[in-house]
Amino acid sequence: MITDSKKFILQERDIPEAWYNVLAEMPVKPRPLLNPATKEPLKAEDLFPLFTEEASRQEFNDTDKWISIPEEVRDMYRIWRPTPLVRARGLEKLLDTPAHIYFKNESVSPVGSHKLNSAIPQAYYAKKQGVTNITTETGAGQWGAALSLAASHFGLDLAVYMVKVSYHQKPYRRSIMQTYGAEVIASPSMSTKAGRKIITENPHYQGSLGTAISEAVELAMSTPNCKYTLGSVLNHVALHQTVIGLEAEKQMEMAGEYPDVVIGCFGGGSNFSGITFPFMRHNFSGDRSTRFIAAEPSSCPKLTRGVMQYDFGDEAGYTPLIPMYTLGHNFAPANIHAGGLRYHGAGAIVSQLKEDGYIEAVDIPQLETFAAATLFAQSEGIIPAPESSHAIATAIREAKRAKEEGTSPVILFNLSGHGLIDMAAYDSYISGDLQNYFVTDEEVNANVASLDKII
């Protein structure tokens, strides 16, 4: 029976004891990561110089359906998990839709986003291995803030390369990282070879996640007892985020419903994977036929308009070659306020699932996302992050379609973070200073033309 509850709350004992490893059940496994020099498939130990050994092993684990969550990690999860599942009754009423809309509220974490779900285990594995320093990149600052907290908890020194446009757009998120003890560097910077090269070629370049990754990887490889950590894209990050969907499954049971469509905003794939993969396993088995929609910016449309090809995960070409939907690793996205979504490619798992028809993708213009965010704030009381607003806009599209068609689907989306440190973006929207950015086919074609045609 469908309840009239607003929130569906689990207890601490309901925090998952294991992450769900979608790799073990995918009908078609993703193509392997490749060594850029030899084009030979990589093994877990090939990543040991860059990542922690446990993260590397998880990256290549395609046999174990469930991977245990260390008790030290679950203990930190208890600070804010389980997160609420919320029935968006206010939004439903405002839209006058027959659809039932739910959202998983990941904004209640100490740093205001889902990113802590992977930051904690990555920092834990580094500490357990005896690592003293870690590096990373961050777009809007959500991942950097999360890792700063995790690094502080486990006594690690952290250097964060923050995309320059976000460094200036979101000064308070930079302050959060510094409060937790991290060093924050605007990227591109003069502190690395990759950064100096980019600045020399384009002095006014405002950065991208690909650039920041290059700098963080370079620093990790040149610093003793240092490892690189990543907030999205790779398999082990998606694995850690599945606590979101595993909790949501139990909460949807409490609500007496099951989602017909599950939506997540999409940059590299971390929160999208976290909310969708646990539900997707029931599609694999044939028990369900849920739709899964990735919502990306129109200014950075890798899933909707990119090509499926091997590409680097960073701009300088330091990473392995990843099979991905990509706009090309040197793609320079527009300076939209959803900094966490300004990434040129999709992870290998999501790319394979997209290629095999298990997920859909839509691209949303910036002004539509802020219009959706404003509606959500006025109807549900939460000011969402610009990134999450892409998922909200997609949910609104689905709810409006339900009204037109006279259907009543159950819609679930992930509210991956709040926007209380993004108010400068809202100021720009309210004053009419924001604009939409679109990429032409000519730009996409020119940018991917130089990729090796391995696939």
Main attributes of the structure:
single chain, 455 residues, alpha/beta, 4-stranded parallel β-sheet, 18 helices, 15 strands
Report the total helices: 18
Strand content: 15-25%
Shape: globular
- Tell me the Rg in angstroms: 20 Å
Task: Summarize the SSE layout with pairings.
Blueprint (H helix, E strand, L loop, with lengths): L6 E2 L9 E3 L32 H8 L5 E3 L2 H7 L7 E3 L1 H7 L4 E6 L10 H14 L3 E6 L3 H13 L2 E7 H6 L1 H9 L3 E5 L5 H9 L7 H14 L3 E3 L6 H7 L1 H13 L5 E5 L4 H15 L6 E7 L4 H4 L1 E6 L8 E6 L21 H8 L4 E5 L1 H15 L7 H18 L4 E6 L7 H8 L10 H8 L7
Helix pairs in contact: 1-10, 2-4, 3-15, 4-5, 5-7, 8-9, 10-12, 11-12, 15-16
Fold and architecture overview:
The mean pLDDT is 96. The strands form four sheets. Strands 1-4-5-15-10-11-14 form a seven-stranded mixed beta sheet, sandwiched between helices. A four-stranded parallel beta sheet has the order 8-7-6-9, sandwiched between helices. The chain has helices at residues 53-60, 71-77, 89-95, 116-129, 142-154, 164-169, 171-179, 193-201, 209-222, 235-241, 243-255, 270-284, 302-305, 348-355, 366-380, 388-405, 423-430, 441-448; strands at residues 7-8, 18-20, 66-68, 85-87, 100-105, 133-138, 157-163, 183-187, 226-228, 261-265, 291-297, 307-312, 321-326, 360-364, 410-415. Helix 12 links the parallel strand 10 and strand 11 (291-297). It contains 18 helices and 15 strands. Helix 1 (53-60) packs across helix 10 (235-241). Helices cover 40% and strands 16% of the residues.
